[in-house]
Design goal:
This protein is 35% helix and 15% strand. It has a domain of 166 residues: P-loop containing nucleotide triphosphate hydrolases (Rossmann fold), CATH 3.40.50.300. Strand 4 and strand 5 form a beta hairpin. The strands form two sheets. The protein has a six-stranded mixed β-sheet with strand order 4-5-3-6-7-8, with helices on both faces. A two-stranded parallel sheet has the order 1-2. The protein has 346 residues and is of the alpha/beta class. The chain binds guanosine-5'-triphosphate. Guanosine-5'-triphosphate binds next to helix 4.
């Protein structure tokens, strides 16, 4: 027999979950409406609708399934680390609903699902909005160091998007960074997926709101939604595929033409564990990165090489927060980080 306290806790959990679900769907709907207003033609609009329906399904099904499996012991839905399990079938395998190793909504663990659910209210795909009132105090710091008593650290939400050809390892990089996990049979992303991770940087905490975009050509038209308002873009190529390096250059061109003005660009030459079959010399990548003022690093999501360093590099390129932007109660006024000039290391 369950105690009354236990039942109450259970009920509160479900109410909270239901509220969050509604918020997510509403947020998706708003996003879609915005896209409709901005879409010049039906053809451009169609993929947005597809993704919305997919998101809706993805959010609805696991929640309904997980409804009865939820337990009050599960972490609150405002916990850190969010992701979308939206994936298409693994390359050459039947469709799986979520990525193995990545928690689905209602399935336990500290991860929360929902492609457009952003803890703290900022950094949705369309831009980095201000956090909910008082949310700075409620936020979990994740795996970053918590400030000591009397010490105040500003939490900054930085929207970061990953771009690059399909199969270069964007999702694997994010998965390694956020969950320290690598999956050989990871599925191609549909639309985009979302995760967060908070890391310390000097006197600040950088909460990365990471949008991992789908590399398949058919999703290309969705990309602006993810790089719009981003503080940084990680553009990934596969060192064993020259073609993926050409695609990277196309992404850089697009970002320069249509992306935020001072976006930090980081180039990741992934799969450096396969350097014996390399097609892109490191020298080429370095010269190119230098010519466009980007950070460059060779990574291996598989062997966890330079993944932390990649995001640290981004953190260091973000100008520190102006003290005036931190209000008296410690809440942060979030704006487009990219509007600031002058890059400083932390
Ligand atoms: N050897 C090796 N394989 C990797 C590495 N990173 C990813 N892979 C593999 O490359 C394949 C594609 O990885 P994903 O992370 O799905 O690539 P993606 O860029 O997200 O692909 P899309 O979602 O289609 O855009 C998978 O089979 C991964 O296991 C790496 O560092 N080394």
């Amino acid at each position: 027999m369950r105690s009354n306290g236990h039942k109450l806790k259970h009920k509160r959990f479900h109410l909270n979950a239901r509220k969050n679900f509604t918020l997510r769907v509403a947020e998706q709907w708003n996003k879609l409406s915005r896209e409709v207003m901005e879409s010049p033609s039906l053809e451009t609009f169609k993929p947005h609708l597809d993704v919305f329906l997919l998101h809706l399904l993805q959010v609805t099904l696991p929640w309904q399934e997980g409804w009865t499996r939820c337990s009050p012991e599960l972490p609150s839905i405002s916990d850190d680390s969010v992701l979308s399990p939206l994936t298409s079938p693994p390359r050459g395998q039947p469709r799986a609903r979520s990525r193995p190793g990545l928690a689905a909504p209602g399935a336990g663990g500290s991860s929360e699902a929902g492609p457009a659910h952003v803890t703290g209210g900022g950094g949705g795909p369309g831009g980095a909005g201000p956090p909910r009132r008082g949310s700075a105090e409620r936020r979990r710091v994740g795996d970053a160091e918590r400030p000591g008593p009397g010490q105040m650290m500003a939490i900054r939400e930085l929207k970061v998007c990953l771009l690059g050809d399909t199969g270069v390892g964007k999702s694997s990089i994010v998965c390694r960074f956020v969950q320290d996990h690598f999956d050989h049979n990871i599925s191609p992303t549909i639309g985009a997926s979302f995760m967060t991770k908070t890391v310390p940087c000097g006197n600040e905490l950088h909460k990365f709101l990471i949008w991992d975009t789908a590399g398949q050509e058919r999703f290309h038209s969705l990309a602006p939604m993810y790089y719009r308002g981003s503080a940084a873009a990680v553009i990934v190529y596969d060192i064993t595929k020259q073609d993926s390096f050409h695609t990277l250059k196309k992404w850089v061109k697009e970002l320069k033409e249509h992306g935020p003005e001072n976006i930090v660009m980081a180039i990741a030459g992934n799969k450096c564990d396969l350097s014996d079959i390399r097609e892109v010399p490191m020298k080429d990548a370095k010269e190119y990165a230098e010519s466009i003022g980007a950070i460059v690093v060779e990574t291996s999501a598989k062997n966890a090489v330079n993944i932390e360093e990649l995001f640290q590099g981004i953190s260091q390129q973000i100008p520190p927060l102006d003290p005036h932007e931190i209000s008296n109660n410690g809440a942060i006024k979030l704006g487009r980080q990219t509007s600031q000039t002058g890059r400083r290391c932390c």
